[in-house]
Amino acid sequence: MKDDFKTLLSNQKIMRGIYVGRFQPLHNGHLYCIKQALSRVDDLIIVIAAAQYSHTKRNPFTAGERYEMLIGTLRDEKVPPDRVYIIPAIDINDNALWIYHIKRLVPRFEIAFSNNSFTTMLFENADIDVEHIPLVERERYHATAIRKRIVNNESIEQLVPPFVVSFLKSIGASTRLRNASVSVDDPRNL
Fold first, then answer.
1. Which residue has the higher pLDDT, 50 or 136?
2. What is the count of structural domains for the chain?
3. Cβ(87)–Cβ(182) under 8 Å?
4. Cβ(16)–Cβ(44) under 8 Å?
C-alpha cells in the first residue's frame, strides 16, 4: 500500500504557475488575475516583488503587510491555502538575471501569468511560457490611483477587497502615504 501511494505521487503531474506583483496595495484587479490563474493551474506561486522597499510613495507597504493583505483576502475568498505559495522577492536590479533569481527562490513552475510587457519579455527570454489574463478596468484598478485616493481620504471600498480596506485602516495607511508623499529627500520616491 505504501509503495502504491509513492507511485501515485510520482506519476501525478501538478501544473504550477507564477504571478508576480508588487501589491502596493492588493486590489480587485490583482484578485481577478489570481483567481483566473488559479482556474488554469493546480498551484500558484504569488511573488511579492520589490520586497525590500517600504514606506515610500511608490512602495508604501512592507513585504509582511503585503503578505497579510494577500493571505487575508485569499482566506476570505475561500482559496484553499494548499494551492498558493506566497513568496517575497527582493529586486536585484539586474534584468538579465531576474528570472534566474526568482527561479532559485520558488518551487518549480510551468507557466507565468503576466500582463506587464517587460515582465513577459523577461520570462519569454528564459523560455518560460506566459499566459496573459485580460485586464479588468485597468484605469480603475491601478495601485498608483488607489494610493492617491488613500492620501486624499477618498473611498477605496469598490477598488480593493474588504480585508484590504480593514487592514489598511489598521496600519494607518493614509498617514503613512501622506508622509511618504511629502518626503522629497528620499530618492526612492522619484
1. 50
2. 1
3. no
4. yes
Q: How far is CA 31 from the centre of its chain?
A: 9
List, for residues 135-170, the tens digit of each pLDDT value. Answer: 777 777 889 999 999 999 999 999 999 999 999 999
Q: What is the pLDDT of residue 140?
A: 78
- Confirm whether 189 is domain-assigned: no
Residue given cell 498608483 in the structure block: 144
Q: Which residues span the domain enclosing 124? A: 2-183
Is the CB of residue 72 less than 8 Å from the CB of residue 160?
no
Residues with Cβ < 8 Å from 136, sequence gap 6 or more? 28, 29, 32
* Confidence (pTM): 0.88
Residue 45 burial (C-beta neighbours within 10 Å; 0-12, 13-18, 19+): buried
pLDDT of residue 184: 55
CATH code where residue 165 lies: 3.40.50.620
- Does residue 176 carry a pLDDT above 70? yes
Please report which residue ranges of 39-131 form alpha helices under DSSP H: 63-76, 95-105, 117-125
How many angstroms separate the CA atoms of 39 and 62, rounded? 28
Dist CA 25 CA 34 (whole Å): 14
Cell of 112: 507565468
Q: How many whole angstroms separate alpha carbon 127 and alpha carbon 124?
A: 5
For residues 146 and 29, what is the distance between their CA atoms, to the nearest angstrom?
12
